[in-house]
Amino acid sequence: MNQKTAVLLEEKAVGKGTFEELTNLPLLRRYEDSFVKATGVPFKLVGPDAKNLCLADSNSSNSLCSLVAESPLGCKSCGQTQKRMKGLVEGKLRVHQSCCFAGLTEVAIPVLQGRRHVGTLISGQVFKDEPNKLDFEMLAKRIGRGLGNAWKEKARKAYFKTQVMPMEKFHAITELLHVFAQHLPEDATQHSIAASTAEPVAVSNAKQFIRSHFETEITLDMILQHVHVSRFYFCKIFKKATGMTLTEYTARVRIETAKTLLLEHALRISDVAFASGFGSIPQFNNVFSRMIGMSPTDYRVMRREK
Predict the structure, then answer these.
(1) Range list of β-strands (E), 19-166
(2) I want to staple 227 with a disulfide (CB 3.0 to 4.6 A). Which of 13, 67, 77, 202 is the partner?
(3) Minimal CA–CA distance to 249: which of 5, 8, 16?
(4) Residue 247 in 3-state DSSP?
(5) Whole-angstrom Cα distance, residue 45 to residue 261?
(6) Which domains does the chain show, CATH number per domain?
(7) Are 180 and 31 in contact (CB under 8 A)?
(8) CA–CA distance, 39 with 237 (Å, rounded to integer)
(9) For residues 161 and 30, which has the higher predicted lDDT (pLDDT)?
(10) What angle do the packed helices 72-92 and 133-143 form, to 10 degrees?
(11) Residue 69: what are its φ and ψ, rounded to 5°?
């Protein structure tokens, strides 16, 4: 494999799988369970290409949002609200809070890897004020035509059972999710690089070899000679164990090393590039920008400001 081909493979590799890595994080599941138990409010992580920001399928079929979705007009209005909210979040890449036509307050928080939008945390579906009979009757009259009395009674119970949350508390919950969103991409990268105790010995040995020799050229033939298995078998088990190809994994290890070296302000960008194992500065800049969402220089400035 020549250097140009290796560069193209690395640049393609670092842009793959970020959202999938987030959804597979044990941290995400633990935080979600604890968050719901502590606040009573659900949250959900959706991909950057999701058609809308809908929390309905995170709730029971008896939730107000789910019942509203049974109405053609309610479903249409909800879809318009979610589409508008998605556009605002993606356009500005910052936390956005909205109140839907049913009176439910929701929040959407972009998850950013550098400046790249890799997912969105959505939460809420709470009332800011105590629900009242007049507001419910107006909502039922607007969207409940043709659904019958049974639907209306279920909707009434769900409406008055919906959690009421003072805005001060809701803002605090939003801030908790915002902080969590800032840590998710970093944890995903570390988790994907970390060795698994359940993985095949050949994979563990290959990872160790890469971490020990990342600053030099690494080829598949070198790895095969080190782990003593066939090419086909190694490629199959490595991808299954890590979710990445050898090229992808090597690129990630090098970028994580570069991120640490960039904190040393005495080092020039070129020093960091070559010390991290990249063959040229343009290659380093391209791979770093694709993976982190910003240039090495911008990353150094951002960390200095923090």
Answers:
(1) 43-46, 96-99, 105-113, 116-126
(2) 202
(3) 16
(4) helix
(5) 31
(6) 18-190 (no CATH), 196-305 (1.10.10.60)
(7) yes
(8) 41
(9) 161
(10) 100
(11) -65, -15
